[in-house]
Every structure is written in structure tokens, then in C-alpha cells.
Amino acid sequence: MSAPASEHSDGRPAVRPVRLGLAGLGRIGRLHAEHLAGRTPAAELVRVVDVDEAVARDVSTRLGVEWSTSFGDLLDDVDIEGVVIATPTPLHAAMIEQAAAGGKHVFCEKPLAFDLDASHNAVEAARSAPVVLQVGFHRRFDPDWATAAARIHTGQLGDVYLFRTSLRDMAPPPISYVRDSGGLFVDVTIHDLDTARWLVGEIDEVSAFGAARSDPFFAKLGDVDNAIVALRFANGALGVIDETRAAGYGYECSTEVVGSRATVRIGDHRRHHDVWLTPGSASVDWVTDFTERFREAYLLELEEFAAAIREGRQPHVTGEDALSAFVLARACEQSFRERRTIALRREERVGRVIYEAVA
Amino acid sequence: MSAPASEHSDGRPAVRPVRLGLAGLGRIGRLHAEHLAGRTPAAELVRVVDVDEAVARDVSTRLGVEWSTSFGDLLDDVDIEGVVIATPTPLHAAMIEQAAAGGKHVFCEKPLAFDLDASHNAVEAARSAPVVLQVGFHRRFDPDWATAAARIHTGQLGDVYLFRTSLRDMAPPPISYVRDSGGLFVDVTIHDLDTARWLVGEIDEVSAFGAARSDPFFAKLGDVDNAIVALRFANGALGVIDETRAAGYGYECSTEVVGSRATVRIGDHRRHHDVWLTPGSASVDWVTDFTERFREAYLLELEEFAAAIREGRQPHVTGEDALSAFVLARACEQSFRERRTIALRREERVGRVIYEAVA
Amino acid sequence: MSAPASEHSDGRPAVRPVRLGLAGLGRIGRLHAEHLAGRTPAAELVRVVDVDEAVARDVSTRLGVEWSTSFGDLLDDVDIEGVVIATPTPLHAAMIEQAAAGGKHVFCEKPLAFDLDASHNAVEAARSAPVVLQVGFHRRFDPDWATAAARIHTGQLGDVYLFRTSLRDMAPPPISYVRDSGGLFVDVTIHDLDTARWLVGEIDEVSAFGAARSDPFFAKLGDVDNAIVALRFANGALGVIDETRAAGYGYECSTEVVGSRATVRIGDHRRHHDVWLTPGSASVDWVTDFTERFREAYLLELEEFAAAIREGRQPHVTGEDALSAFVLARACEQSFRERRTIALRREERVGRVIYEAVA
Amino acid sequence: MSAPASEHSDGRPAVRPVRLGLAGLGRIGRLHAEHLAGRTPAAELVRVVDVDEAVARDVSTRLGVEWSTSFGDLLDDVDIEGVVIATPTPLHAAMIEQAAAGGKHVFCEKPLAFDLDASHNAVEAARSAPVVLQVGFHRRFDPDWATAAARIHTGQLGDVYLFRTSLRDMAPPPISYVRDSGGLFVDVTIHDLDTARWLVGEIDEVSAFGAARSDPFFAKLGDVDNAIVALRFANGALGVIDETRAAGYGYECSTEVVGSRATVRIGDHRRHHDVWLTPGSASVDWVTDFTERFREAYLLELEEFAAAIREGRQPHVTGEDALSAFVLARACEQSFRERRTIALRREERVGRVIYEAVA
């Protein structure tokens, strides 16, 4: 009988969970906090921060972790190795820089900022610290997309000809959210642009088309709730993204990559495996929400963050990836406004791809 | 015991099958001939015509119908009520005009011509004769698309937000076919443009993107084998078409229309209903060919032609529809060449929609 | 220009459709008549017979074929090569014997009779005439089952371990039908027993369990509307059949064969390929009726009959098969009544398998 | 900034995880240990026990929990509220009694024992202590089955007519496992019998059929590797279980309940949601293992155990359920041996259903 052994019977040392703090207890912040507190063996939640004390206390009580109303408390805690930033976007860049300065690794929700310079600076701060900087492109960790990516990257599809992806929310978010979202392309399309780069490769041209259909406030804000984006990849493949914020039937994120030898397709968002047979009809429940569809991906991205910290390496999706997707999303916005195709150029700087829209 | 009764026991008169001739015994012509000879109760094949006598004789023998090498023989046969034209496209328009002049109803494969004026003249000839003129947009008769159309047109989807369709051939046709095909947009996209108009409505703008990937001859011919087309409908909906001539896995024609209340999606091109389970895998056979996928639609379009003749009405898909889809297909071609969005205007002339690209 | 060529351009003689008569214009008889009149190129319907003159006249008018109220008229018609018998079961055996005596080939709906001796005599009459005798086990011609059978018979499954099949009607037939049906095992299970023999092989033991649940008249008639039958095959495999006459959701006929290396499964009875997405649900239409599910099989079994006649061979499913399935169905009935497993023995007589229940 | 709040901001007290020990670090024991150590917020693993010290130390190191080679250490630990027993079956009953005597709640893998009296005594010990006694019928916690159960129990199916379930392993376990497994019916069928009782209700008769096919050792041991069991439920429904230990294609556990108004069906064991399209084929990966299929159920049954302890109530699946399924499994064994249907009677004792085979 004994306390936890500090090494395996063959002498390998034991590994302890990474200790993390979390700032921002909105919807996604609370989800991450719950995961870190009880469902991610590789990571452990030490403290949560929110400017609203009642919120911070409640989460603290429920999850059995410390709380605070100040981000500085996370940075001062020598026990904390990394921070998860789920605060509103305008706060991201400064918090990344503070964390980097304090030697804390950073997991940050996307986008890094609404401003290109701020995004660059945040990435640079993490890079020079150096600390791990991972962004919340959760789709990269979903087992379906990961399987597809492995098939594509090992050449099982042959030459890639077409990339196609659909992103649909069941109902638009409230106007308060939309107003501060950066617009559909920066808020939503950014995920699909990251997926496109990851699965197929770098992008040379984007052509975006949009429409405001579901609620009059979209038009008032100059935003759209439906969009089509055509892509031309550097390797010659074509791509297309379709999106709506108001697909009445539910949530969907489907992707297909067509190759010369094989094609991979991700869809089928049933909630359970039950088929329900009623007179003349067979039906399955369909997911209504991204947290439901990507529950496992949200866990796995946090495990990846912990693993990157523990192994002293960059995560599978980096600040540079966030920057690339952000530039591409803004090029979509520009294409839509100016009703023309926007070309992009890339520069390899210190081993990193830096995108820029061609004027 | 008696010969076939010429009227029902309640005195309604019996209806006899429509008698048809068929010209052009290439792949699709032979398919139509076989259907008319034995699988379409409403129509009966009297005579087949092909310039190659051996081909005409063989089909004649196999199907037990008369044969000829001259289209004039069909027109001269007073017993024949209508003709099915499956000859090469350059012959279509003149044959339609001859048939119309001879008072024969016409079913013609698409497109009516590669030339806009010739197309107009053919439609006008049928119109003024008047004879029935139906074009071979078989998809309109497939039970899956017909069911979807009924749901859309009765308002079950609510407002339509997005239209999405994929068209994929397993392998490119030979260069000899491609050279005379009119190019991808006129040869292939035309079907999807007709589907878009039928399901969602008239189209205001097209933006086409193409790539030549599978075989070097596409580039040599200035043609493409992969394409994306973004559509803006007059009712505000967005649409997207993706196409490839070289989807290694098989044939596919999938369509989806997303509405505010419901969405309809057509896909799942399994050949049988068998699931084949082998270690770690469940698979179904996938169709490899459009005749396999649309076998029933090819029968039903001929039954519609017979019904339109017998009932003295226009068919569900007309010469004007062919003209509209042709103008749209050429606008896609122009959009691709000029790298810009092409706007379209429509004029209502004598109750018909006439499309025109805005210069 | 010429009349139908009587030979191919290479001199092969032309083949003309087999000329058939049909007796019995109930539901299935009318279906066969419609198929023969316009959808089976290999066969042609000459005359229909029904004791009800109005019914015979109406079908005659609609299909453009001769009519009569007497079966003798079919037999006297020298132009007719074979007859399709879709009259009530008690008439089958005598009509088969008459047809055989008249040298007419016979397609007969199952069962051949409710009486074992009568069944034997009918089969013997066809055999000694000799004429083709095919029974209406349509499932053998469905492309799904035919594909499965090919996989099993070519050894792709390895050793067969389990056979499983479900047969479900949406609602029970009227009491008038059930009263004269011969009971569930003889009326319905007989199809599944034929499928079991065809796919897996001969059967050594049956154990049947039944229940009357949906309507009180089943219990009053001493019949059941739900059943389970366990099978032990001669090759060591186990099998199970489940059946209900009142599966509220629709019609279903699903089969699965589990082997050591692979498994084949037939199911998925969607009516169209459309998926209909409404809030939180994805649904497909489900077939409600066996004629809908087996439309193609009903065509193909008639084409097989015509081919067997034309090629002078036995069809793929014979009178002996009908006899075997009938003995097995009666053994199920006995097993259910006596609450015990019934063993069967087989005798090979003149190359044919003859089943018999062990006392 | 503060330590974990001991109450919510509104004064509700915080709830801390249940502290558990675990005995038996075989395959399923290690799985439970990993879950308890990092994936079940409601429970916390304090100590693991295995007779093999190296195994205990390694798991201890990996999971950061204490270890021991003696079950007594768990019982002596005042900090531990409950124990998870995953040792070999012959040890279960005595360990349950010891735990109950020590006031520890018990989660025990099935079966409770190979002996009926020992099973009874273990249940009685837990009952009189009283401590929570939950058995490892994990399927009850799978969201698919839980959804089906909810639909059945709220009457959405109408009258239940048929129950059907398939259980298939990809390959037989080693002979060493089979020899001590208690035979197919007690080792495997017991799960399906529990599911049958849960979903449809109590069982009056079982009729079992078996065969040894995949490996000669099954016959040598007098065991079977394939089985069919027909059930007659007290409410009049029929049921059927099919099982094989050697379904080459993978693992499967599918269930269907057919009712008069609707039917629920659980199947589709794809590993991911990816469809992989290769020439002429669409395939999905299929699960090969029960831990893969029931990963979530294994988590949820532990959360239920923790919740039952914290809430001072019986769990959703009890020792009495284990006892019932065990009696039914032994009746299947008897039915197979004696080649006859075995009837069962039930006695309600102190509010519990106690099953007994009718001699």
C-alpha cells in the first residue's frame, strides 16, 4: 500500500497534469472550465477569472477551483503554467501579450483580434517569449476531420480537385453578439478558411458573395447571414464554402474533399444512433448546436494544449494559423464589398507563412 | 372472349400509345430506343433512324421496329406523331425546324444548338407550328427531385436561403467528345442551371470559376474539367454549383435546398440497398454512371412527352427552359473567361421568360 | 427504309417477345398485367381472364389486350405460349395441371395449394409435360437479394454462422383475406423460408413461436399476426425469422447473413433518396407496401419466366422450391401448435430435393 | 481572489466528488480506473488494488492515485466511500459482502457469481447493510438505449409486438477466458436479457438454440459461440436475441423494438462520421470492439454510481436486476441443453422481483 508512485515500475517518471487558469466565463469559457475541471486527464484547472464576481464564485463552487476577478491573479500564480483566454475578442491580444510576458502558455479563442497589427503583435509576443500559443480552431481536433486530414495528407485521395464545406447555425445569434462579431466572414468563415488551408493547402484567391435574409438587423449592420465563398488553391484545386446563420433544421458542419482517386466526406450529424420509425417515415435526431457536435473536439483541443506544454513543442494549430485565417477572412470581406476576386500573396518569414491581400 | 375493348365497361374511350420515331442511335439514342420499345406503356417506337445502316438495322432487329438511314423517312411517315432527336448537337436545330414544319412533336436532347440564334429559331418554329417541344432535362422527372420540387414549391421550406448542387462524372469523356461538347459550362453546367431555375427561381448573376486538372487535353482545348459557379437568385437566395469530370469514386448528382423552416437534400447514390460488412468497414456499392442513377428519370421523361402529345399541352420542361439554361451556361462561360460576375436580365415576351446577359 | 429486320446485320436471327395470357385480375394479377403489357420487353400480354367480365373488359381496354372470362380461352389460344396464374390459391393446382396438359408454360403465385398432395401433383404435371413451372417468389429477383446471394454463393462470406430476416406489413389484411390465407406461416413465412433455403441451404429443424396481438380476429381464427421462427441449417448455421402483420411504421423486408469473413445486410427501405431536414430531425420516406418495395423484382421475375421459356430451361425458382417452402411452412405451423421443435428430412428423388417433416 | 468557494453565491453548498477505490486491474478494471481518474467529474479515484504489484504500481503512476495489493486496504480506508469491483467473477460475491459489511457502496461487474445462492447472498448483504449495489450493465447508460427506453416507457410505440437484439464480437476470446466465462448464455446473453427486461418487461418463457462453429475448442468445452434465443414476454410480446462470438466484420450491438404505432431501432456502429468514397464504393469505418462502441456508456454508469451514492438512492440498475438476468441466462442454458422451452415464474418479495425457472 502506498501513495501515488512517482515513477513506473520500470523507473520511467510519472507525469502530472498541466495546471491551468482560465479567463472569461461566458458560454465557451464555462464549457472549457467544465472540461478542464473533470474531463481532461492531462490538464487540471486551478483558477477561473471573470470580471463578474458572482459568475466567478459560482463556477468556482461548482467545479471546486479557486476564483478571482482579475486576470493578473492568474499571471501572478507561480503554480499556473498556462492560461485559457475566452474573454471578448477586443481583449485577446493584450492578454496574450501579458501572458507571454509572464511566461504563461496561451490557449486563446479566435480571432486573436479584429485588427491585423494587434494580431501580429500577439503572435510575435508568444513567439519571442517563447510560449505555446494555440488558437481555438477546435475542428482540427475532431476525430472525423482528423481522419480525413490523415487520408488527404498521406496521398490516399490522389490529386485534390475540389474542396467543399458547409457551416450552418440553426438560428442567428442576438443582434448584440452580431454587432461585435466582426461580421460573418471574420466570425464564422474564418473556421472554414482554416479548415481549407489545413486540408488542402494555401489559398491564392477568394471570391465572396453574401446576402442578408433571416433578420432585418443584418442589413442594418451592413452584415450578411448567408454566404458563398469560392476558393482557388495554390495547388490548382477549387473550393467552395457555403454558410448560413439560419438553417432552421439545426446545426451542421460538413466537409468534402474530392480527389482523383478517392473522396472523403464528413456529415451525418445525428444526435444518437437511434432510428425512429413512424408511419411512412424513418427519422434520426439532428444536432442543433455546435457544442453538441464538437463536444469531443473541445476536449481534445485542450488535451493538445496540455500536451504541447508538457512536451515543449508548438501545438497542431498555431498563432500563425490564426493570422493566416484572419487575413483570408478579411479578404473575403473585401471581395464581398468590392464585388471582385481578391488575390493573396504569401511570404515565408522565419519559417512561417504570412498572408497578405494583393492590393 | 373478345378483341381489345375500344372502350371501358363504363363507356370511356380506350387510349392508345403515342407512336414515335427516333433519330440518332448513339449511347443516349439507343437507351431511349430500348425504353420506347419495351418499357414505356404510353409510347410506342415505330422506327429508328441512323446514318449508319448497320447500326440502324441492328437496333431494328433487336427491338422489332422499322429502320431507316434518313430523317426524312420519319417525317414522311403519317403514322408517326412525334420524333425523338438524339443526333449530335449541330443537327438539333435544323431537325427541330423540319419536324415542326412536318407537324411532328419533338423531344430533343440538350442543348438545342451551340448558337443562340439557331436555338431561338428552333424554339420559335415549334411554337408557331404549333408542336410540343420537350428538351432532355431528365433530372426534372427523377422522383427524388420531383419530390423536392413539390416540397419547395408548396412552401414547406419557408424562405429559400441556399441552393447547392454537385455534379460529378467518374472519368472524363474522350477528347473527341470534349472537343465538340461546347465546353463544360454548356455541356454539363446547363443541367444544374436548369435545376436551379426549376427549384429556386430566376437567376440575376453568375460567377464561374474553372480549372483543368485531370487530363492535359482540357487545357489544350481551352476547356476546364472542374468548376464552381456561384449564383444570385432574383428572390435573394444564393446558390452554388460544383462540378468535376473526374471524381474517381463514381457518378454523383446531389442537390440541397436550405430554407428557413426546412431543408431538402438529395444524395446517397448507392446502387443496391445491400450493406457489405468486412473487417472494420461497412460499404455500399456506388453508382458509376448517369444512366444507372437516372434510369427511372429517362423512362419518365419519355412518358411525359407522350402524355403532353396525347393531352395537347406543353410538357413540364420546354424549349424556352432550354433557351434560358443555354443563355445562363454561356454567361458562366463568359464569367470564367472575363474573371468577373455576369449579370442577367430577363424579358417577358408573350408569356415566356427570355434571358439575356447584361453586356 | 424497311420493316423490322428479321435478322441482325451479321445474320443472327431476331428474337420476338414471349406471348402470354394471364388469369386472375386481383391486386397482384393487375400488377402483373400492367407489367406484361408495357414494361417487359421480353414478354407480351395477349389476353387477360377474370370471372368478372367488367374487370376483364376494363383491364383489356386500359392495356389494349384481348379479354375473356374463361381460363379455357387461354389454353385454346395457339398463339399463347405461357400463362400467368394469379387466381385464388384453391384454384392454382388444377389450373397448373390443365395448363401443363395444354402444353402451356406456367408462372403461378405461391402457394401452389393448401394441400400437400395437390401441390405434389401440380409439380409432377409440369415436370412430365414438360413445361416451365415458375412460382412467384419475387424476392429471388430483387437486385439486392440477388447481389447478396451471389456474394454468399461465391464464398465471399466464408462460413455462414447466422441468417436473420424480418418481414413486416404495415397493417393486417382484412379478416376475409386472413380466413382464406392458410395462416401466417403458410401465407407469409413461406417467403422467408424460401429465402433461407436459397441463401444459406437446406434446413434440418424449425421452432416456431407466435402471438395474436393486433386484432382480436386472429385469435378467433386460431391464427397469429406475430411470429419468431428459429432455424437450424444442415450446414450448422442458425437462423431466425421475425414477422409481424402490424408494424405501424410501414412495410419492411430485411435480410442479413453473417459469415466468418464478411456479412451482407439488406434493409433501408426509403422511398426516395431525399432527406428531409426539419428542426432537430432528419427523415426519409419509408415504403408502406410490398409492391412499392419490390416493383423491380416483380418485373424481373416475369422477364425470367419469358427467358426460361425462350431458352428452353427451368427458371431460377421452380415448383420444387415451392414444394420445399410449403413443407417447411407447415412444419412451422406444427411446431407452433405442438410447442416443440420439428425436424425435417429430405430425400433426393430424380435430382430433386423433397422435404418431409419427421413424425 | 480566493480558494474554492464552499458554497454558491446564493448560498447553496458545494458538492464534492465521490471518493472511490477500485479492485482488479484487468482490461475493464483499467478502463474504469482511467475514467475515474480523469473523466468523471462526479467521482474521484483514490486507490487501485491488484494482486500483481507491478500492475498496481504502473496504474498508480500513470493515474496519480495510491495503490495496494490488498482489497482490505480499500475497506480500511475511511476516506473511501465506495468500491468498484472488476476482479474475476468467482471473487465478486465475497468482495461484495465484505464491502457491504464495511459500509462501502459497491459497483460490481456482472455476473455477481456463477452460483445462484452466492448471488442471492451478495444482493441480500448489500440490501441489509444498506449500501448501494450497482452492476455493470453498461448498456442501460448508453444514450441510444436510454433514448429508446424513454420512448418505449412513455408509450410512444403503442403496444410492443416484437423485441429484437443482436450481439456480435469480432473474434472469440481466448480459450482461457471462455473456459472460466460460465458459457455463452451466462457470459454474453445476460446483457441482452437485461436489455429485454428493461425495455419490454418481464419474461415468461425462453427457448435457446446454439451452435459451436468458429473454433473447435467451443465444442470441446461443451460451449457454443453462436446462439438464438426466442422470448415470450409477460405482456404478450415476442422477442429474439441473436449472438455470435465470431462476426468477422467487427463488433455490433443492435436493438429494435417494434410497436403498433412506432418502432425504435439502434444500430449503425460507424467509428467516425466520415464516408470514404472509392471507385464504385462508399464506406464507413465500423467499430471492432465493445469499449469503442460503449465508451460513453462506461463513463455514464460510473457517474450514475457516484450520483446514487451522493443522493442516497438505489442506482438505475440494481443487484436484483443482476439476479433476474442471471436466472434468465441459466434458463437459456437449460433450454439449450434440454432442447425445450423453459418457463419462468416470478415472485414479488419485499418489493423485488425474484425469478425462478419452472421445473
In CATH terms, the superfamily of the largest domain in chain A is: Dihydrodipicolinate Reductase, domain 2
Radius of gyration of chain A: 21 Å
Strand content of chain A: 25-35%
CATH class of the largest domain in chain A: Alpha Beta
Secondary-structure arrangement, i.e. CATH architecture of the largest domain in chain A: 2-Layer Sandwich
* Computed structural class of chain A: alpha/beta
The total strand number of chain A stands at 16
Distance between the termini of chain A: 70 Å
Structural domain count of chain A: 2
Widest beta sheet: strand line-up of chain A:
12-11-7-10-9-8-15-16
Average pLDDT rating of chain A = 94
In which range does the helix fraction of chain A lie? 25-40%
Tally the helices of chain A: what do you get?
A: 12
For the largest interface, the chains and their residue counts are: A-D, 59 and 59 residues
Low-confidence stretches of chain A: none
Give me the CATH fold name of the largest domain in chain A.
Dihydrodipicolinate Reductase, domain 2
Main pleated sheet of chain A: 8 strands, mixed
Q: Give the CA-based shape of chain A.
A: globular
Oligomer: homotetramer
Return the string of H and E elements of chain A.
EHEHEHEHEHEHEHHEHEEEEEEHHHEE
